[in-house]
Amino acid sequence: MARLPEPAHDVSGPSPLEAAGPDSRVAVVYAPDDLARGQYLFFWTHVKRRRTRVAYAIIGGLALLGFAWLLWPLTGSAWVALGLFALALPFAMVGLPWLIVRATGYWGARRALRRQVDLPGEHEFAWTRHRLMLRSRYGTSDIPWADFVEIAENPRLWLLFISDRMYYLVPKRALTPAQSASFAQALAAGRQSDAAVPAAPARAL
After folding, report:
1. At residue 86, what are phi and psi to the nearest 5 degrees?
2. Nearest to 40, CA basis, from 169, 148, 138
3. 144 and 130 Cβ atoms separated by less than 8 Å
4. CB burial class (10 A; 0-12, 13-18, 19+) of residue 158?
5. Is 13 left (phi over 0), alpha (psi -120 to 50) or beta?
6. Rounded Cα gap, residues 160 and 97, in angstroms
7. Residue 109's CB: how many other CB atoms inside 10 A?
8. The pLDDT of residue 192 is above 50
9. If you write DSSP's letter for every residue of 68-135 in order, what string do you get?
10. pLDDT for residue 129
């Protein structure tokens, strides 16, 4: 029979949306600046991932070998050209895409707010030390902290990844100092405690 995986971590107990106090819940209406800054943080989070750096190294090495083959035999001037090419590679592979993201991020965020139906309107977040819940006009999500595959943070926002490319965005501007401290403590405590809990076994049907 088919075997369906159970949730990785327990989500029993009262809903944070019902039980959370004022310091453990916040309503967010996204602005274009939030979404644009989320794209910027996502870009650098992606660049810093080990597999991305390995891919860049392989592609850069192959590009360098290919350019050297075009210049063969490597005379004095060819070595200079090869060195300049090597210096330009990081900009071509990282700097140029970053400039494109930076130049188009705000425009893309405004377009997403106009066209992506689940982004406009109020998004209510509530949390405990075990899980995060999100409610919008399109439904409710209930996610244990340990089920987020990656967390990225800067002074303006948190990105909570549920996959390599999908994330929840929590802008810090929407939180009071007390809410921000409560959120950070719940996130740290939940991920630390739940990381030691083994995933539930698959259930046979």
Report:
1. -65, -40
2. 169
3. yes
4. buried
5. left
6. 23
7. 21
8. yes
9. HHHH-S--HHHHHHHHHHHHHHHIIIIIHHHHHHHHHHHHHHHHHHHH-TTSSSEEEEEE-SSEEEEE
10. 87
Long-range contacts of 101-104 (CB under 8 A, 24+ apart): 101/39, 101/40, 101/43, 102/40
Note whether 128 and 16 are within 8 A (CB).
yes
21 band by pLDDT with thresholds 50, 70 and 90 = confident
In the block, tokens 């039980």 appear at: 19
SS3 label, residue 24: helix
Its pTM surpasses 0.90: no
What per-residue confidence (pLDDT) applies to 6? 45
Identify the pLDDT of residue 157. 95
Contact 4, 203 (CB under 8 A): yes
Residue position matching structure tokens 């990282």? 94
* Neighbour-count burial of 161, counting CB atoms closer than 10 A to its CB (0-12 exposed, 13-18 middle, 19+ buried): middle
What strands, in cross-sheet order, belong to the sheet with 157-161?
150-154, 157-161, 167-171
Closest C-alpha to 127, from 188, 45, 42: 188
Task: Give alpha helix (H) positions in 116-201.
Answer: 177-194
Residue 11, token pair as written in the block: 């989500």
